[in-house]
Specification:
This protein is an all-alpha fold. It is about 90% helix and about 0% strand. It comes from Methylophaga sulfidovorans.
């Protein structure tokens, strides 16, 4: 049973590692070294990829937790709720925030104060959600309650 936890650890490392490396290394480096418009487009593509990784990872993690703990006791584990919350945030990025920001970028948004304000609001929301996801993910990676959860199931 512990091999499932090794797989969970690896998947979490991929997901959360991509969150941190893209959001706090690759994108800032892009804005430091590229034209703002090019860096913004590049950042959007990177964040899209990170959210796809998050979507796939969260679904795999939740399904595996359902198999391990069963549907009746799945809800008892805070880690399951955290993964579900992060999945919902990833879906929010993919179906609302990123498409809305991309559609605003297609317009002459810097010349229109309403579009600029809308973009800035979405950008701040995006930054806040991304930081929250990064911290929740770090909490998932750093916690060590997997063994005690496994013993409760056995």
């Amino acid at each position: 049973m512990l091999s499932g936890y090794s797989g969970e650890r690896l998947l979490l490392t991929l997901w959360i590692g991509s969150l941190w490396s893209i959001g706090y290394l690759a994108v800032p480096m892009a804005f430091a070294n590229l034209d703002t418009i090019v860096a913004g487009d590049y950042a959007g593509k990177l964040f899209y990829a990170v959210n796809i990784i998050g979507l796939i990872s969260a679904i795999i993690l939740l399904v595996s937790r359902l198999f391990i703990f069963g549907a009746a006791s799945f809800h008892r584990y805070w880690r399951s709720w955290l993964i579900l919350a992060m999945l919902i945030m990833s879906v929010g990025f993919l179906i609302f925030i990123q498409p809305e920001m991309a559609s605003i970028k297609l317009l002459d948004w810097r010349a229109d104060p309403n579009l600029t304000e809308r973009f800035n609001i979405l950008h701040k929301l995006s930054e806040s959600m991304y930081m929250l996801m990064s911290l929740l993910g770090l909490l998932l990676v750093l916690t060590t309650d997997k063994r005690s959860e496994a013993e409760q199931v056995s």
